[in-house]
Amino acid sequence: MRSLQAVLQSASFIRLALVLFFIEVVRSAFIISFLPAYAADRLGLSVATVGLAVSVHYVADTAVKCVAGYLLDRLSPRVVLHVSLCLAFAGLWLSFVSDQPWMLILGSALMGLGVSPIWLICLSSIEEDNRGSQMGTIYTVWLASLGLGPVAVNFVIDNGYGLTFWLLAAIFAAGWAVAIGWNIQIKPIPSFTFKEQMAQLHLKLVAMKPLVPGMVLQTAAAGLLVPILPTFAHQHLGLSYSHYSLVLITGGVVTTLCLIPMGRWSDRYGQKRFLVLGFGALAVGMAGLLFASNLYAAMLLAALLGGSYAAVLPAWNALMSYFVPPDQKGMGWGVLSSIEGLGVMIGPLIGGWLASLYNETVTVVTSACLLAVIALFYMWMPLAKPSAAGGRAEG
Asked: Which pairs count as long-range contacts for 98-106, CB under 8 Å and 24+ apart, including other chains?
């Protein structure tokens, strides 16, 4: 029978996952649907301004991670959580009342600054014995919110931006209400200085050098497709936009359904084989898109890509968590997330450049090749994780 402490830890994690769900519903609805429509229709701003606001949002999200992680190691996680929620809501409100481009951009940045630490708190709360399954839970919540947010807003936005804003505010308030009841024991402030903390973290980063290529390349490979995927689906695959939506829904549903079981299996059988098979299957699925000739083939490939992504995601993050110092979880996850964020920032730039210089097919081929290289690299490279004694143990 599980101990009372284990039960309380699980309940705390579930509550935190709910907070993440509500806030990510608002964030995805805001960035994908509300911001572009509101800025263009109500404020009359250019597409370039909207693009700048979205870019600033993600730059702020990535840039704040190290600072937020450092504060999370030294302050109460509860305090960090509520300050983050305050910043995020301030960004949402400022964007809605804005009448100048700089106000919209500042609001978008505040939203990024506020949501980013919530992810670090979730990652720092992962239990040692349930790394893969809890990683799967976090990313299942994220994918569900990523799909639900824009859909919910699209049903309401025709009835007015004011109603849409208050819907987003109500969802945000629900998440904040869940957060009020969340609490964990306040961690003691580390006895070592910032310089000593960075030195210890540096040792961990040196130990995890084999993971670094995948950290950047996997997010870059996905980012390559962001500027070109709708055009590729329409022109190369011959899909209508409604059929394209069906393909995306298929991939998303399969990913969501598979994340938690894949996480549990990676806990049981080891992360390396899931990384190799997952990245390899992603490369095959991506290359297969070049030969898809109808909607059903595209949906089948989307299911393969979704299942493969579900195999990679919890195993990848569970493996990374071994390299996060136990007494520096906030700072550790902040640094790792920032490294991954480099791929998110450079991927779309390279993908758009390749499509402009050549065509969308070249971008898809490049993404598939990157994924295949990652699979082969980790098939050859022994992945090791730090042992409890401070040495190294095979992963």
From this structure: 98/43, 99/43, 101/43, 101/45, 101/49, 104/35, 104/39, 104/43, 104/45, 104/49, 104/53, 105/49, 105/52, 105/53, 105/56
